[in-house]
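ok so i was messing around last nite and threw this chain in just to see what happens. nothing serious, just curious
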Amino acid sequence: IINHVVPLALHNQIKDATRHFFSLPTEVQSELLQADPFSPLSHTIRFKPYPYMNTKLLPCILREPFLNFREKVGSLAHGIAKEILACLQINADLLSDTRIRRQTMTINYYPCFPDRKFNYGIRPHPDFGSITLSMQDEILTNGMYKRIEHRVLTNRYIPRISIACFYAPTKDDDIGPLGKFVSKRTPLMYKAIQLGDALNHGFNRPLNKKSNLLYSAIN
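result:
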């Protein structure tokens, strides 16, 4: 995406803050660890900017750049969602508020690892979210759109940083194929599921390509 609303200076600021945070002693980083994947800050140092979240939970070095980044990327996400809905000829009022109202920011730091034999990074997987063509998008369009599978490999010589922003329904929202994508020619492929159930299903299993679609698929 070019000509977006996130300034280069803010990109650099958030990357510098991330490097600084991951250079801190392990015991300092561990103060943020929580086992519950739905908590505002979890064991992956995942920032979920819910309206009720106390931003003081964020470390000082991350707070300002991440809040600024959230605001800018949030505007970009709404614009992308609007264009996607227009391409699908779906009324923006039907999905825009629901499908991207849950925001999650995940800081990923991958130390360099010279031995390629054990250089795994993250397994191939699709994301949970509405902006990437992931599980929900394939379900909503009844298989018309295919989710994107990807993975991460660590670098042999330098650390890698990624800051992923996810925009999705809340865990209490239901996800199912939209009526306009179901017909005699394209019969129903997926049942409606609650996002929270799908997330629990995914979090309790190793990352893989198929399990979450199979969870929703109609036999």
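not much to say yet. Residues 202 and 211 are 7 Å apart (CA to CA).
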